[in-house]
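Example: Helix-turn-helix domain-containing protein.
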Amino acid sequence: MTASTELLTVPQVMARLQLSRTAVYDLIRTRQLASITLGRARRIPTHALTDFIRTRLEQEAAA
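Written out as structure tokens, the predicted fold is:
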């Protein structure tokens, strides 16, 4: 699996963004953060996390 297709768990995303589990699931629920479901497991592609951060930085710069 390449770095562009690496899948992160919710706890990994929580640690990287320093957000609570609820906040991460809220981002997923509102489709601000893309994710996939494998069985009962929720996974976030690294590129989705990168895109989310880039979008937020652009929004902050435009404000």
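The helical segments are 10-17, 21-29, 46-62.
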